[in-house]
Structures are given as structure tokens and as C-alpha cells.
């Protein structure tokens, strides 16, 4: 196949990890209880449902894990990232990789890959909001779109990508915003990057500016376990109880999901100050969904690292990786502003 989008017969590696896109419900109207029985399709069975994908590229399917997305852990991120790096390194002619994943933690896995896959070729993560056994499933179309995007030459150099509902997002910016709607993945003020559209074309309108993939400084060689970083969620009346417990547990770092522009109740902030005094790096993020946490005079004087506009869960991932290289707050702050 030769056209302006795909070039000459692309090869795409497709990695399965499970999630709604793989579950088989009891009947065609099972939109909520499909995971109860634990029956899942393998990635090979999922690919067999979409023969159109093989018209786009030679697809090499591999099952990494097969679980619901609530059961994806940092150890699985390491396994998946290493496998993608191995495949890409061994096959210089491949166009890219695609990953099927449950939507609950999809944005976290995608951002981890954005920071750790050391290749300009695309890694495209997709999932589904309706299982393949249900009426109106989005599973097959999303899988096809992921292969299309991974095979398209113009996808290179944009970092890890996420596609659902025909919309292509940067892994850094995207987040799940609704528990059941198919248009759940949104990128806030940043907006999505382009479409995998009805005419079969992959169309982009912008590219991410922050460091990623081939330009990343994070190397997984020799890393068997990531440092533990936890998120402390602020709310009216929140105090330092949870933060003190995390500090006593000797966690590697804390991300504070603050109110508004990053501030929180005084007792909560006092707990964060005790953590800093104990040598625990603390990153201030905001739980409001969009907008930056700024390097204000107060935050800088009190030793905080700010997350810029990274969501708390993604600031956590970046801090985990940052701590594999340094505990210097100034260096960790640089990373928050560059990635």
C-alpha cells in the first residue's frame, strides 16, 4: 500500500494490556457489569475483529498483561516501556507502536511512555468506553485508529499519543473527564492535536512543545522499581494527618493536589512544610483541571517545587522518574518545567 499518509507498507507493533476494550459482557446491553465475569479477549482476538487494520499495516500483536486498568501498576509501566523500546530498537523499519489499555489509568501509562520510550516513532495508546460485546462499541474503531496513527509518517516526533473518539491527543495534556461517555478524553485549554478521520486520513494541526520520548533524559536501564510518590488531596478543612503519615512512611516524594492555584488550608501546608524539613520533595499541583501553578515568591521561599500545568497524577509520574536521577529540588523543578 502506498499513499501520502502511510508510505510503503507500514509495520506496527500492537501491545495489549487489557481494559474495557478487551472485556466480554453478558449481553449486548451490558455497559456497566462487563468486567464482573473476568472474560477478556486477547490482543490477537481483538485484532481479528478488525481486519481493516491489516489493510493499513502489517500488525504484530503481543499480549503484555490482560487486566482491568485499575490493576495496572508502575511495575507494568516499566515492563511495557521496556518492551516497546526493545521492539523499536530491534526493528528500524517499523513505523510505530500502538497500545490497548483500560481508560481509568490510560493517561498515566501514556504519559509514562511519553517520558521513557526513546524513539521518535509514535506510540499510540487507545482504549474503549464500551466493551466489544456491547451495542455501539467504540473498541474496534479505536483500535483501527491507533494502528492508523502509528503507521502514519506524520505522527513521528509528536511523543506518545492518545486516540479515542477519532481525536488525537498529546499524552502529556489529555485526561479522562467523564465516567461513561465516549468523548471522555479531553485536553483542556491545550486542545487535541488532530483527527483520525472518516476519510481514513490522519490529520494534525499542532505538535507538543515540551520534551518527550527521544529527547527525554530518563533511562530505564538498571531500574527495577520506581521511587514511591504519593498524592495528597486538599479540601476545605484538610490538615496534615495524611501528609505526616506519608512522611513517616519515608515516601520518596509527595505531590499536593492543591486548591485553586496550588495553595491549601494552613494545617495542610504546615504538614507539607514538615515533609520538606524531613527531606521529602514536595510538588504543588492543582486539582482544578486546567491552569498553571506558578513559581510565586512564597512557594519558592518555602521550598516547594511547582508542577506548572501538569495534572497531579502526571506530576507524580514525572517526580517518580526525576527521583531516579536526583533529589536536588532545583533539578526536579527544572524537569517540571521542561516536560
UniProtKB/TrEMBL annotation:
Q: Which UniProt keywords apply?
A: Hydrolase
InterPro entries from the UniProt entry: AsnASE_II (IPR004550), Asp/glu_Ase-like_sf (IPR036152), Asparaginase/glutaminase-like (IPR006034), Asparaginase/glutaminase_AS1 (IPR020827), Asparaginase_C (IPR040919), L-asparaginase_C (IPR027473), L-asparaginase_N (IPR027474), L-asparaginase_N_sf (IPR037152)
GO terms assigned for molecular function: asparaginase activity
Asparaginase/glutaminase C-terminal domain location, by residue? Answer: 228-336
- Domain named L-asparaginase N-terminal: which ranges? 11-208
Catalytic activity from the UniProt record: L-asparagine + H2O = L-aspartate + NH4(+)
Pfam name, any one:
Asparaginase_C
The EC number(s) given in the record are: 3.5.1.1
The active site consists of 20
GO BP of this protein: L-asparagine catabolic process
UniProt-listed NCBIfam families: asnASE_II (TIGR00520)
Which family is it part of?
Belongs to the asparaginase 1 family.
Q: What is this protein called?
A: asparaginase
Amino acid at each position: 500500500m502506498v499513499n501520502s499518509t502511510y508510505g510503503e507498507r507500514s509495520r506496527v507493533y500492537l501491545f495489549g494490556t487489557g481494559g474495557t476494550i478487551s472485556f466480554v459482557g453478558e449481553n449486548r446491553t451490558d455497559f456497566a457489569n462487563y468486567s464482573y465475569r473476568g472474560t477478556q479477549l486477547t490482543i490477537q482476538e481483538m485484532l481479528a475483529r478488525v481486519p481493516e487494520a491489516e489493510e493499513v499495516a502489517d500488525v504484530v500483536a503481543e499480549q503484555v498483561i490482560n487486566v482491568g486498568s485499575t490493576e495496572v501498576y508502575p511495575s507494568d509501566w516499566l515492563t511495557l516501556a521496556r518492551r516497546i523500546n526493545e521492539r523499536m530498537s530491534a526493528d528500524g523499519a517499523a513505523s510505530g507502536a500502538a497500545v490497548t489499555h483500560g481508560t481509568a489509568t490510560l493517561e498515566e501509562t501514556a504519559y509514562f511512555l511519553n517520558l521513557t520510550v526513546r524513539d521518535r516513532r509514535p506510540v499510540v495508546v487507545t482504549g474503549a468506553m464500551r466493551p466489544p460485546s456491547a451495542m455501539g462499541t467504540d473498541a474496534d474503531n479505536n483500535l483501527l485508529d491507533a494502528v492508523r496513527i502509528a503507521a502514519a509518517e506524520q505522527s513521528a516526533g509528536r511523543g506518545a499519543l492518545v486516540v479515542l473518539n477519532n481525536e488525537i491527543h498529546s499524552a502529556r495534556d489529555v485526561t479522562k473527564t467523564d465516567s461513561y461517555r465516549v468523548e471522555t478524553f479531553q485536553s483542556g485549554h491545550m486542545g487535541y492535536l488532530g483527527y483520525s478521520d472518516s476519510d481514513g486520513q490522519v490529520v494534525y494541526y499542532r505538535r507538543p512543545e515540551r520534551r518527550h520520548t527521544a529527547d527525554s533524559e530518563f533511562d530505564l536501564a538498571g531500574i527495577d522499581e520506581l521511587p514511591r510518590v504519593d498524592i495528597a488531596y486538599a479540601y476545605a478543612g484538610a490538615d496534615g494527618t495524611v501528609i505526616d503519615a506519608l512522611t513517616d512512611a519515608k515516601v520518596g516524594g509527595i505531590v499536593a493536589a492543591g486548591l485553586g492555584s496550588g495553595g491549601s488550608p494552613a494545617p495542610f501546608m504546615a504538614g507539607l512544610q514538615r515533609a520538606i524539613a524531613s527531606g521529602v520533595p514536595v510538588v504543588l499541583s492543582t486539582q482544578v483541571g486546567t491552569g498553571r501553578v506558578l513559581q510565586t515568591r512564597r512557594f519558592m521561599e518555602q521550598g516547594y517545587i511547582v508542577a506548572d500545568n501538569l495534572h497531579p497524577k502526571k506530576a507524580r509520574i514525572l517526580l517518580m522518574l526525576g527521583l531516579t536521577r536526583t533529589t536536588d529540588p532545583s533539578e526536579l523543578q527544572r524537569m517540571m518545567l521542561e516536560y
